């Protein structure tokens, strides 16, 4: 049995980048900082997130830079050829299936976000 499941909780690094397609599909890209605790400091690991459909719309409407979220999804590797150097490139991306909006109402009010959805 194969398994490809990723669970992450962290803070959003950028406001959502949302694209609407003529087909009606919606795609949203975010970055997520997840602290990796070490003996000396907490250093963030950065993850690229990709959300589609209703999940992408929720992120577009309610997620902003600094918001704490939890995600569940799967790891995929995007591959492409660099236009300038023709070199093969790749980047890991988390394809999000579930999005949980976390944080307190105080966090949302400080960020200027609505307290109720």
TrEMBL record:
Taxonomic path: Bacteria, Bacillati, Cyanobacteriota, Cyanophyceae, Desertifilales
Quaternary state and interactors: Homotetramer.
UniProt GO MF annotations: DNA binding
Entries under InterPro entries matching the protein: NA-bd_OB-fold, Primosome_PriB/ssb, ssDNA-bd
Native source organism of the sequence: Roseofilum halophilum BLCC-M91
Signal peptide: none
UniProt keyword list: DNA-binding
Cross-referenced Pfam families: SSB (PF00436)
Domain of life where this protein originates: Bacteria
Protein name: Single-stranded DNA-binding protein
């Amino acid at each position: 049995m194969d398994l490809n499941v990723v669970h992450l909780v962290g803070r959003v690094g950028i406001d959502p980048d949302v694209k609407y397609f003529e087909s009606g599909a919606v795609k949203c890209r975010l970055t997520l900082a997840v602290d990796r605790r070490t003996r000396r400091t907490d250093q963030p690991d950065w993850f690229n997130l990709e959300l589609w459909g209703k999940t992408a719309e929720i992120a577009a409407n309610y997620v902003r830079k600094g918001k704490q979220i939890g995600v569940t999804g799967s790891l995929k590797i995007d591959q492409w050829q660099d236009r300038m150097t023709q070199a093969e490139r790749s980047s890991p991306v988390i394809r999000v299936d579930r999005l949980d909006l976390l944080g307190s109402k105080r966090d949302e009010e400080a960020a200027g976000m609505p307290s109720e959805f």
